[in-house]
Write the structure tokens for this entry.
Amino acid sequence: MPESPIRKLVPYAEIAKRKGHKVYHLNIGQPDIKTPEVALAAVRNADIKVLEYSHSAGFESYRTKLAESYRTHGLPIDTADIIVTTGGSEALLFALGSTMDSGDEIIIPEPFYANYNGFATASGVKVVPVISTIDEGFALPAISAFEKLISPRTKAILICNPGNPTGYLYSKEEIIQLAEIVRRHDLFLIADEVYREFTYDGDAHFSVMNVPGLEQNAIMIDSVSKRYSMCGARIGCIVSKNREVMATALKFAQARLSPPTYEQIASESALQTPQSYFDEVISEYRMRRDTLVTEREKSPGVKVAKPKGAF
């Protein structure tokens, strides 16, 4: 199992703090935005006498409200399409375990979220990177580059949209291109869409769940961590209309029994968060992005790609 290149920096930070130094954690995607009060209040006010297991797929009430929320935002998702997971991380593990066997391969545009390596290793899956470049703003590599990497062991393409760590936002046209290649080769398209709300230049996020005819190939990964600044809640979900995939994912969910109860209570209540919260957060993140990019562009020899989304 590979060491996380993000978390392996933690001991150095701890030593620095003990020495009295101020540490800025640029290695961890932890928002400093306040968690919505409606979510915290729900936990404080929960009248629980026995802290029971929930359904392995998560509270039905939460899944139903989550599906309603997705439909409000134009995603054609039903309650049966959702399994609640212990963070987006577990959703990715369920996705890999449900679609691949040991020795299979997954193609991922690189640079990519470092823990994808760990998830793949835990599932016995080989990551095959396809390189995106800063000169192209980390746009989707040419489809021909994907075609060259597809082998009999290839089972899926994984993207993060908007991207962590690049901040690149895939266009509708790029998603359609990926949809065509996965249909042509009978692969899955797994999309980590946990940063969906955070786009900055008027470009709309286009989900894999919105591609007509991709229902049997598309798997969406989501999480409350960044959306509501609730990283410690560890609640995410795997979403797909492929019934066989979801039936298999449920077996993994049953093996770990259930997602945590208090965190589901908080996440269900967080769905009541007003749009004004997101407007303020997006405005703040846009300002930070613009400040960073403007100042870095002044530095001799530094090449900057302007992120369109995420952090």
About this structure: The two ends are 27 Å apart (CA to CA). The first strand starts at residue 82 and ends at 85.
